[in-house]
Design goal:
Layout: H1 2-15, H2 22-28, H3 38-43, H4 52-87, H5 94-125, H6 128-151
Length: 152
């Protein structure tokens, strides 16, 4: 029983955006090569010549996402707890657990949809030239990081 709960918590944690793991997400995410994270854009804002209007638009999108995500995350926690409670006791009602688990999965999918929507809307704010520059920076960045570490 604890294993199912732990798996749900792990799945939730993997879906929550983390600024420090942006590079890892891009490698594991099948869409990562085609989309740009807010962190990546902020890091390279000068290199891609991000203008104030674009920056403000991306900021509005992030604020909107955060508002939507907070509600979804609370809902997911409640649904995960409902699964846990349904698993307690010596006999488990399979249909009840599966219904609760389905609710949690639906909420997880909605969180993924919100993240994907954000990344698509951000991409649409960037010009093709800015997107090309971000791709170029992605390719050269690992080399620069290695050279920086070697010189220390």
């Amino acid at each position: 029983m604890k294993t199912v709960f732990r798996l749900l918590v792990l799945a939730f944690c993997l879906m929550v955006p983390d600024i420090s793991s942006a590079q890892v997400e891009q490698q594991e995410d099948p869409f990562g090569a085609l989309l740009y994270t807010p962190e990546e854009i902020m890091q390279h804002r000068r290199a891609i010549d991000l203008n104030d209007e674009q920056r403000d638009g991306i900021t509005r999108l992030i604020e909107e996402l955060q508002g939507r995500l907070v509600g979804l995350q609370w809902r997911l926690l409640d649904e995960t707890e409902a699964v846990k409670e349904a698993l307690e006791g010596p006999r488990v009602d399979l249909d009840r657990v599966m219904d609760r688990f389905g609710d949690a999965q639906d909420t997880e999918m909605e969180i993924k949809r919100v993240h994907l929507e954000l990344l698509i809307r951000i991409k649409n704010i960037l010009t093709p030239e800015q997107q090309a520059e971000l791709l170029r920076l992605r390719e050269t960045e690992p080399i620069e990081q290695i050279q920086s570490l070697e010189s220390q």
